[in-house]
Amino acid sequence: MMRADAGIGLQRLHADGGPTRNAFLMQFTADITDVELDVADVAESSAWGAAMNALLGLGVYQSLDDLSALPRASTVFTPAMNPGTARLLYEGWLAAVRKVLQR
Fold it and tell me: Where are the alpha helices (DSSP H) in 1-103?
């Protein structure tokens, strides 16, 4: 949807949250989307966000730009699946979603 709605090619996606602990899911996502997936090593980004807000509130950092310069550990998953296989799996996923939504 992002590609179709924005009309631009995606170079990289970023992910965080609990599901990022599942390396299989992250690799599968990169394969199906055919885009590099940059996964934050800090899965619980809510706590990280609260800490960054505290740093701003305490005046340790002055702006969001200052915070964005902080090092961020991540793992990059590069698409590795055969494109034909990825397309078939994606189409199967779409069919499953359609069936669930029709109920």
Answer: 2-6, 23-33, 45-57, 64-68, 83-102
Structural domain total, the chain: 1
Report the amino acid identity of residue 2: M
Partner residues linked to 37 by β-bridges = 13, 77
Is-contact 40 65, C-beta < 8 A? Answer: no
Collect the ranges in the chain with pLDDT lower than 70.
none
pLDDT at 29: 94
Which CATH number belongs to the domain containing residue 33 in this structure?
3.30.420.40
What b/e sequence results for 53-73 when a residue is b if at least 16 CB atoms lie within 10 Å of its CB, and e otherwise?
Answer: eeeeeeeebeeeeebeeeeee
